[in-house]
């Protein structure tokens, strides 16, 4: 259900560094990002009067969208445009629902849309409809088709490489690199990012390790990942599985559950990768169940998306500041100017230097009673 509310005049709970990032990005400087789509009759708005910004996010399976992306984006937008009106909706992995939500926002007079697509291909209809009404679209996290105006995400090919490099490193450390096979459990086939993760991982794995079983996982479902892992165990045998590539933390939970149900002790679990640095994933890393996750600093991503939305609505240029500008192509060959952020591998050795030092989680959030006795928490508390 779409929620809509104007911003109040209250002070946003917005960090100084984050505010500086957003404000630095939104300038009328030279060498700025340009839009990748042909614009319709787009109306130029002013910050003093404000305008209407809509944020559409794709799903609830991954905790980051509700816990971080939405509030971070809202705070950044409020910081840049206190008079702006904000609407938000999450499609909960339902393509039709997202189309309905987008249409409702367009009918309600939204001036710019920030879109995290459920399905990249299906989102082309929403993008085209918005463009026909002169409403620019920022693709958020996932590159929607249809010719969006701007795009912000992480270097998704690099994400897959980081995961694969970490898994090979764990196998080398354990001395099991040549002793068996790995299982690859990839993300949703409707998410273009999942294809990039997969391609990046394959690039690193090629010639280094044998892939015994590989799956694509509809809707990034942990339950489906659990079933896939059970099938891999039956097909390959537990003794043959030396590692598991999991494309995200939610699926890693299902994978680890399948391994534990098959009788594998925590001490004997093969290294399992992840992504998104979910709190539960970080806690599994602390407990020795999951080997790593990929930390993606969501605050800068949300800040950039808000600055892109404001620049498109006001007609001002967007300076990339400290970030590199690149150009990407969507599946139809449409070129879009983009900012792609760098992913970071998180293991038990650098939790404090990444998610804790960045304020993503506190030690108290990680080291609850169930995890307080593990080495990381004993040393941190």
From TrEMBL:
One Pfam family it belongs to: Peripla_BP_4
GO molecular-function terms, A-Z: carbohydrate binding
GO cellular component entries: outer membrane-bounded periplasmic space
Subcellular location: Cell envelope
PROSITE patterns, alphabetized: PROKAR_LIPOPROTEIN
Alphabetical UniProt keywords: Signal
Domain of life: Bacteria
Annotated coiled-coil segments of the chain: none
Signal peptide limits: 1-24
Domain Periplasmic binding protein, residue spans: 54-316
The name this protein goes by in its record: D-xylose transport system substrate-binding protein
